[in-house]
Amino acid sequence: MKVSEATLVSPSTLDECLLLLNDQKHSVQLLAGGTDAVVRMKEGVWNPDTWINIKNLDALRYIEEVNHEIHIGALTSHTDLVESKLINERADVLAQAAKEIGAIQLQNMGTIGGNIATASPAGDTIPALFVLDAKIELRSLTDTRLIPIREIFTGPGRTVKKSDEIITKIIIRSQDEDEIGIFEKLGPRKAQSISIVNVAISLKMGEKPRECLEGKIAFGSVAPTIIRATKCEYMLKLNPLFDDVIHDIASAAWKEVMPISDVRASAKYRRNMASSLLERGLYRLMKRWEEQ
Amino acid sequence: MKSKAKKDVLNEEQKLKWIGKSVKRIDGPEKVTGEQKYKTDYSYSNMVWGKVLRAKYPFAKIKSIDTVKAEAHPDVICVLTYKDIPGFNGFGIVTPDQPVLCEDVVRCTADAVALVAAETVEAADEALDLIEVDYEVLEPVTDVENAMLQGAPKLHKDGNIHSHVTIKNGDIDAGFDEADYIFEHTFYSPRQMHAFIETEGGWGRMEEDGSLVIECPGQYGHRDKLQIARALALNPERIHVYSSPNGGGFGGKDEITVQIYLALLAMNTGGRPVKIHLSREESVIAGIKRHPFKVTVKTGAKKDGTLVANKVRAVADTGAYASLGGAVIALAIEHASGPYTIPNVDMEGFCVYTNNGIAGAFRGFGVNQVCVGIETHIDMLAEKTGLDPIEIRKKNAYKQGDISSLGHVVKSSVGTIETLDKAAACDLWKNRDYYKNQVSEPWKKRGVAVATSFHGVGMGIGTPDYGAATIELLQDGKFKVGVAIEEIGTGNGTVYAQVAAECLKCDINRIVVVQGDTKQTLDSGTISASRSTYTGGRAIATAAPNMINLLTEEAANLLGVSVSEIELAYDRLVDAHDHTRFVTYEEIYESLHDKHRSKRVEGHFYLPKEKEELKNSGGAPHHLYGYMTHVVLVEVDTLTGQTDVIKVVAIPDVGKVLNPQGLEGQTEGGAVMGIGYTLYEDVLIEDGYHKTKNFTDYIIPTIRETPEIETIPVESNEESGPFGAKGIAEVVMIPIIPAIMSAIYDATGARVYHLPATPERVYQAIQESKPQSLISR
């Protein structure tokens, strides 16, 4: 299919979109912010008969608190997340991650649903969604299912989403007053860069100084998909997070990851950076916790 | 103080109205609003699209090329191969060793094999896929040292060493014998990309009169015209090249880019205009790059800080073709011992062919790669001896009239010591301990360092360097100033307007500058070699008196007085005895027009040259050099190796500053490009294939990587220059490179010898230098 011969349709409702996705005769491709889709089109990787432009499906663009959970419409832009009071107060790690994505222009166009669908191992919002126990709602014409984020990715660029499904909603837990999160990213430069390694952390703190009751850590760009650092998570609960403990926990991080070498960094460096970013993140978190 | 007093006298004497002022860019509003159109922004209703088929392999024999299927495509207008080239199948500024379209062999993936013109971009792309090229793949030559070995596959019939230059002075062995300290290191530099905003592209079209028009951004339209003519076997007078404005050049559009392809296609499209505009991906592969160098430097010094010997061996990877590679390595060797008086030097450089793309001209032209050796060694010497790094540099710097390391007497102005004095006195250097202590987190370390360097202005010996300008009086009383030298983003047109307005004593709004137009302007050389302000400015200053004579004579006629009684007043010519009697430029135009007299004058200027070329040096020494010192503050995150340049003090000696705002534009742009070179940028090529495809992985600094940059100019009046000016555009990105490298060392104790100093390389160097606890407690 030539790009110039492809059809572009813009459904005005979700039902209309689901109907289009159900079309068995033609190949279809969803187009939300276009920050990944257009690149793939130009590379010749995606050449569908029909582009389904969902950018204007405003029904899928919302952020709301429901029973101690936060529901985020799939077409919510990264800028929406950055600017949301609710996200900043109850899911700080996601707000920070959204702010680290590419450049402002990409944050304005790109959507959280698109970031999940692209399924890049370096996707910046995904580690944050891991530590916030996200559940992803997938809908087709006939079915609605809710998949935990840990089960959604099958490999780089691959998810369990079927071709007739669309990501409609992301449900995350709302952090309590005693919870605190951070996103750390190492890219080749500060802005407009793809993560060499990134990490999201969400901690539940106790009464005692630097006491951590529970914590979640997720790394990006160090495995075929985003991964949780379960060994480090256990260690968080053993001792108060003073600097030497942080250092020890961070030192264990390299055992959690299995990165590859590519044009951006060597596997060895990525391993070391998993430790460095975790150390930097925990240090900054504790500093912020004590200042609160 | 002395020079300031001298400058004031100069200003007072000349009462300068435009020179030395921050006159706003004449093309500023259009550039800022985006209203200005580049050549590649235009479209025509009857246009066709041109595309280039690039080589599939970095090194292969072509057994056959079959275009039948591509030609059968309904939307294809023509498919061209080497057989369709009427003239010489080659181009190259100095050595035309690059085929326009390859015939029997491809030497890099930038090579062009065929051209297509089609109704749409999509059809052109499809046609490229339909061209069948049968290759016999060869093992690529990718390492410069291996390429130089006997028995390496030869890329060109004379072998893989394109050029070998040497400069020797004194007795190198005796020099090292008397040295108390000897430092020897090998430095590797990146394949930097120009990364201009406008990729290579343009238009070709045949006019009804059979002449050929090429509208294509370039850095020397008159030379492009000759290269096109050679390939087309066409009278150059029948070719008109419009090469300005450019969406950035930096040397990357000095060589032919797509002009000859446009010309060939335009001759085969039945008069329809043809456009080629490279995608960023094609530009990365096909465009020239900065030469990656391997430089081994051995420096000997005495305990008192005197440099006594410097031995340099530099090897440049020029890729598959020469372009300006020979000149780049020559300039590198000329500058490899710094602006110093080292009595014993032994320097040699090799320019070597490989199958790694193509390298050519790039801002700095070889000096970026070699300046790191001598400057790093001076800092090492400072550390060993405990001497001040600025004092060591001052002690060894040559002054005007001194003998340089090359052994020649430097006759033009030299500002090195003044730039170093200003560096020593600047806030960042004086209070460096204070700044270094301002770290925000315990694993961050800060460092401050200084470096100085220089850069030749204009071409070396053996390359004629010449400027010409025309000034034409227009009907509305304005002056059309024609200088062929293109606008590539530098703002030279504004300087030309300033010089013209100053010389003609008129308002700057009366000056209309025409650049990059072979039909309207005289050949005035390249926009390169930091030469355009100096050469273009001097050419205008030479033309201006001719215009004043023309105006004065006609004013005398009109006022009925003798020529000696006419005074040039602001915006008019007056009777010296009676200032109420005057004539306007409009009146003069009308009078000349009625008499069918020419309203146009010319000015020609030859750049001063040294008389004797250093044997085997490839063109050294230059007559003129610009000098520069940088002081930088960096912060290194020792957890990750990320380096942040926080503050830059740029201290250029560029002769008289003609436009302070323009100068700051250069010092700031140069600093950022130098930061990119030192910390981020490299086009990675493996086995002849580009691993770096586009800006996703080619990292240039953004505004977030841009530090505070302070500019403190030193104005060493250069007698030969227009109003005392020299060149600026290249030296501004040079000393910042070793300065950042040394500041990283100052911060962390780790030295990086392989640029760019990416986080991974810095982190590794820190790990190797000393085991550090991640958080200092």
Distance between the termini of chain A: 57 Å
Count the domains of chain A.
3
Overall strand count of chain B: 28
Share of helix of chain B, binned: 25-40%
Reported for the largest beta sheet of chain B, the result is:
7 strands, mixed
User: Which regions of chain A have little confidence, pLDDT < 50, spanning 5+ residues?
Assistant: none
Q: Based on Cα principal axes, name the global outline of chain A.
A: globular
Strand content of chain B: 15-25%
Keywords (chain A): Flavoprotein, Oxidoreductase
Domain FAD-binding PCMH-type (chain A): 1-177
InterPro entries (chain A): CO_DH_flav_C, CO_DH_flav_C_dom_sf, Diverse_Substr_Oxidored, FAD-bd_PCMH, FAD-bd_PCMH-like_sf, FAD-bd_PCMH_sub1, FAD-bd_PCMH_sub2, Mopterin_DH_FAD-bd
Organism (chain A): Ornithinibacillus halophilus
Model description:
The complex is a heterodimer of chains A (292) and B (777). With 292 residues, chain A is α+β, with helices and mostly antiparallel strands. Chain A is built from 12 helices and 14 strands. Chain A folds into 3 domains: 51 residues; 116 residues, Uridine Diphospho-n-acetylenolpyruvylglucosamine Reductase, domain 3 (2-Layer Sandwich), CATH 3.30.465; 113 residues, Enolase-like, domain 1. Chain B has 777 residues and is α+β, with helices and mostly antiparallel strands. Chain A: InterPro entries: CO_DH_flav_C, CO_DH_flav_C_dom_sf, Diverse_Substr_Oxidored, FAD-bd_PCMH, FAD-bd_PCMH-like_sf, FAD-bd_PCMH_sub1, FAD-bd_PCMH_sub2, Mopterin_DH_FAD-bd. Chain A: GO terms for molecular function: FAD binding; oxidoreductase activity.
Structure, briefly:
The complex is a heterodimer of chains A (292) and B (777). With 292 residues, chain A is of the alpha+beta class.
